[in-house]
Inverse folding.
């Protein structure tokens, strides 16, 4: 915590999807560390409520899907608030159901928010961070799902693998361009953290012929069940800020739980084992 306060205290943090769940936890902890927090979300009411809770923070209604709006946000923050020390591309949504049952609009929603949203954040803020010539951090939210394969959540899993790859490539690009001393790019891989993501997740269209609604909804129920034992977002935020301040690249809310999924993925690829059905990976806090 001391290291995190020294590293981030006094700086400006811009957090997308800040009005709920992990984003709100990161915002609360950033505020506790002495950061000025810009709360970016599409949920105006929830963002305003959090602004009232965190004196000195700023709420902005902005959709990460809109590249122009994200560029305007960056311009406004640099003009009115100051140089950004920490950008967290956190906004993300879930989707349940067989891939062949997935409405095209729901596929696009996941890709536009989870993947393009991260790209828009990087595109809007990174050049300004580089130009400011002060140390800055970019965190992108991948997931334990970024190193796992899970049926009935395919669009989400695809998006989280994509964010992990984007973040790894971005880290190399920052180094290649000679900015590694100033800009830290880091990937956040939460395991199971209490949030609204499963409630607001897309599903399948019950009116479409042959659609398996029960499969989609039973996967949602299984995920909601995991949430019952999940980590508190404030606790998750503390862990992530501490790991970031220590310079790790992979920031894991539950190092044992997420780390075991990473090791399993590495072994599957090494041994070329085909994907295998398994019961849902259950998070048991007693084990971690
Ligand atoms: N909760 C978990 O256990 C978990 C695990 C792994 C990864 N993650 C990742 O963490 C991130 C945050 O998820 P969460 O679980 O806190 O979800 P959440 O649903 O609780 O919060 C997401 C926030 O993003 C906002 N949002 C949605 N669409 C937006 C858009 N287009 N523009 C701006 N804001 C938008 C929502 O209004 C909400 O406030 C996501 O990227 C998610 O994939 C979460």
């Amino acid at each position: 915590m001391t290291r995190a306060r020294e590293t981030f205290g006094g700086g400006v943090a811009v957090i997308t999807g800040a009005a709920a769940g992990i984003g709100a936890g990161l915002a609360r902890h950033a505020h506790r560390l002495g950061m000025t927090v810009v709360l970016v979300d599409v949920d105006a009411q929830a963002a305003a409520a959090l602004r009232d809770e965190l004196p000195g923070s700023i709420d902005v209604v902005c959709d990460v899907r809109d590249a122009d709006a994200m560029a305007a946000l960056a311009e406004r923050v640099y003009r009115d608030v100051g140089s950004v020390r920490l950008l967290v591309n956190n906004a993300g949504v879930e989707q349940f159901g067989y891939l062949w049952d997935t409405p095209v609009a729901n596929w696009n929603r996941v890709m536009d928010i989870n993947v393009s949203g991260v790209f828009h954040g990087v595109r809007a803020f990174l050049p300004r961070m580089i130009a400011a010539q002060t140390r800055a951090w970019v965190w992108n939210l991948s997931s334990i799902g970024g190193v796992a394969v899970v049926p009935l959540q395919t669009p989400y899993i695809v998006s989280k693998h994509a964010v992990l790859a984007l973040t790894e490539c971005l880290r190399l690009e920052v180094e290649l361009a000679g900015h590694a001393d100033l800009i830290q790019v880091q990937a956040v891989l939460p395991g199971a953290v209490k949030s609204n993501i499963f409630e607001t997740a897309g599903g399948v269209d019950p009116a479409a012929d042959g659609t398996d609604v029960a499969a989609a909804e039973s996967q949602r129920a299984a995920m909601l069940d995991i949430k019952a034992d999940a980590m508190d977002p404030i606790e998750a935020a503390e862990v992530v800020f501490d790991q970031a301040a220590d310079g790790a690249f992979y920031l894991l809310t539950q190092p044992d739980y997420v780390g075991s999924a990473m090791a399993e993925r590495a072994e599957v690829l090494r041994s070329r084992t085909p994907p295998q059905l398994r019961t849902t990976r259950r998070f048991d806090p007693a084990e971690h």
The mean pLDDT is 96. Residues 16-17, 19-23, 41-43, 46, 63-65, 90-93, 113, 141, 143-144, 190, 192-193, 195-197, 200, 230 surround nicotinamide-adenine-dinucleotide (CB under 6 Å). The radius of gyration is 19 Å.
